[in-house]
Amino acid sequence: MLGDGRLSPASATRVESLGATLRALHAETAVGPYPAVVPTLRGQGWITGLASYVVDADDPFPEGYTVRDIW
Fold first, then answer.
1. Residue 8 CB: number of other CB atoms within 10 A?
2. Cα 13 to chain center, whole Å?
3. Buried-most residue among 21, 30, 31, 70 (CB within 10 A)?
4. β-strand 34-42 against 12-15: which pairing, if any?
5. What is the C-alpha to C-alpha distance for residues 15 and 18, in angstroms, rounded to an integer?
6. Whole-number pLDDT of residue 15
7. pLDDT tens digit string along 37-58?
8. DSSP code of 68?
């Protein structure tokens, strides 16, 4: 949006949602030869669930696998 002129470097946007997010462009910079921005994000978050992950002792792929590993 900055690249096509819809936002200025000093602009901020507010997204009305449960988290009431405020987004702003903090700084302009470059990543190699490409122009870039450093954003600032503010909002709220809530814990909506908890999970536990375990690795079975008999798991043949305890560290995971990719399709290339099995084809």
1. 10
2. 17
3. 21
4. unpaired
5. 9
6. 65
7. 888 878 888 889 999 988 889 9
8. H
Query: Measuring CA to CA, which residue among 20, 19, 17, 37 is closest to residue 28?
Result: 37
Task: Specify whether the backbone of 10 is left (phi greater than 0), alpha (psi in -120 to 50) or beta.
Answer: alpha
Place of tokens 């814990």: 47
> Domain coordinates of the chain in residue numbers?
1-44
The pLDDT value given to residue 46: 84
Distance in angstroms (rounded) separating the CA atoms of residues 42 and 24: 9
Say which DSSP state 13 is in: E
| Dist. CA 43–CA 16, nearest whole Å | 10
Q: CA-CA distance, 36 to 11, in Å (whole number)?
A: 15
